[in-house]
Amino acid sequence: MKLGAIPGGARGWGVFSKHMLTRGAACRRGGRLLVACRGLGLWHYFRWVVHAAVVAYGFYASYGEGLIVKVSIMVMRRYFVFENMDKNHGVMLDEVLHARHTVRAFSPTELKKEDVEQIIKAGLVAPYAALPVAGKPNFRKFFVIQGNSPIKEKMKAIIVAKFPAHAESFEKSYGPTPFSKMLKEGGMKMANALLDKPCIILSGERWGVPAIAPESLSFCQENMWLKATTLKIGFQLLSVVSSMKLGNDKEFCQLLNIKPGEYYLDGIALGYPAANFKPAPVKYPDIESSLKWL
Ligand SMILES: Cc1cc2nc3c(=O)[nH]c(=O)nc-3n(C[C@H](O)[C@H](O)[C@H](O)COP(=O)(O)O)c2cc1C
């Protein structure tokens, strides 16, 4: 029997299956399955199911398991939202949420490239404001500065040179707050030490309209933070990168090869926690004082 001759609405699949079934003995078995189904009079009821199975089998025989797994994940994502979630995921997630902390002292040990990439992949699946970046590729970018990369000194020089003006303009905008006092008094030391971390990641989110790139990037960074926690890698936000508006700075953007003003930039430090590091005690808000059911 010629599979291309499958009648009616199934013709499209038939041509497809025919193509797939020309590949190897494994596929011929798929063909026999079709014939058997027709022989048993089941064809009318099951032809779509059988066709889908044969096409999948053809793919499997032709391209191996990897593709089938990818296609299955795509189908799962399309038709089932939370199908593979169970109670254990919630328990594990709670553990990760409570284990997450800001780490501010790092061991000099370099991170494995694949761990850094896993953290970035977690950032890539974070939600993003889709309309502002519609039709714009590369709306999320990451720049990794690991170890003694020569770019570090160039970045440091830019940050240190611009820091006094940054502290001054902060005080002008917000007045003599504790934060502006900290910027003026301890800021230069902080600026000098800012990049002295085992690994720095500058994350960029493309600006659009409305200008909500910072919100998008926060989701991204939280994903990265949680992933880093599962890998026992310490994480520190370096919000001076965003508050100094380094994404608008011509010299700084030149180092990253991006156009000034195109991306909102923020920074994080990653590294294994130093041996003597203890997270700062934190008092999180409690549910009683934070929640109001309306
Ligand atoms: C928007 C934002 C900016 C932050 N910037 C910094 C920063 O520049 N440096 C730093 O060490 N921590 C920074 N933090 C971390 C907070 O200080 C920290 O999350 C908070 O004290 C609670 O501690 P925890 O992270 O250990 O739960 C920032 C946090 C947020 C949400």
Task: Please report which band the strand proportion falls in: under 5%, 5-15%, 15-25%, 25-35%, 35-45% or over 45%.
Answer: 5-15%
Number of strands: 4
Can you list the ligands bound to this structure? flavin mononucleotide
Radius of gyration: 27 Å
Based on the structure given, which CATH architecture of the largest domain is correct? 3-Layer(aba) Sandwich
Structural category: alpha+beta
Q: Give me the CATH superfamily of the largest domain.
A: NADH Oxidase
Looking at the structure, the CATH topology of the largest domain is NADH Oxidase
What is the average of the pLDDT values?
A: 87
Shape: elongated
Whole-number total of structural domains = 2
- Unreliable parts: 1-22
- Tally of DSSP helical segments: 12
* Major beta-sheet overview: 4 strands, antiparallel
Helix content: 40-55%
CATH class of the largest domain: Alpha Beta
Which strand order does the major sheet show? 1-2-4-3
- Helix-strand pattern: HHHHHHEHHEHEHHEH
The CA-CA distance between the termini, in Å, is 68 Å
Account of the protein in words:
It is a single chain. The protein is of the alpha+beta class and 294 residues long. The protein has 2 domains: 77 residues, no CATH class; 182 residues, 3-Layer(aba) Sandwich (NADH Oxidase), CATH 3.40.109.10. 55% of the residues lie in helices and 10% in strands. The chain has 12 helices and 4 strands. The chain has a 4-stranded antiparallel β-sheet. The longest helix is centred in the middle third of the chain and has 24 residues. The radius of gyration is 27 Å and the shape is elongated. The N and C termini lie far apart (68 Å). The N terminus is likely disordered. The structure holds flavin mononucleotide.
